[in-house]
Structure formats: structure tokens, C-alpha cells
Amino acid sequence: MNLSYERQLTIALSQVIVQKYGAVLSAKNFAELLGIGLQGLQNKLCNEDRDLPKYTQLRGKKVFMANDVAEWMVSNDLKFPK
Q: How many domains does the chain have?
């Protein structure tokens, strides 16, 4: 089974993120991963900036799935250059 480079990278990043933060990242964990402050992330979420991965509402809180974050990191040229 041949996997593309991008798919292999997504799988590897997902595994690393899950090992460090778990399968579901809180806004605080995601901000830490990006190296920005929690308030900065919340501002981006309120402004509905498009340079963030998709998130899910879970019990009234916005959370990020590790796989979605990994796919976003691979596909977003600004955050993870190819």
C-alpha cells in the first residue's frame, strides 16, 4: 500500500499530537501547539478567521480533533511549509 507523502505526514503528526495532547485538543492546548496566547486564539475564533482548522462544539466548548489539526498543518502553507 503506497501512501502519498502528505498522507504519511498527516498520520505521523496525528500520532504525535495524540501522544502529547490526546485525541481532542482544548482551545488552550491548541493555542499552546500554535505558540499563540489563548486570548489570541479566542479572538481568531470569534472573528471566524479562515486560517484555523475546523473545530467541534463539545459540551458548549470549542475543541479541535487531532486528525483535523494534523491535516490542517500539512495543507496550510503558512503554518507548515511544504
A: 1
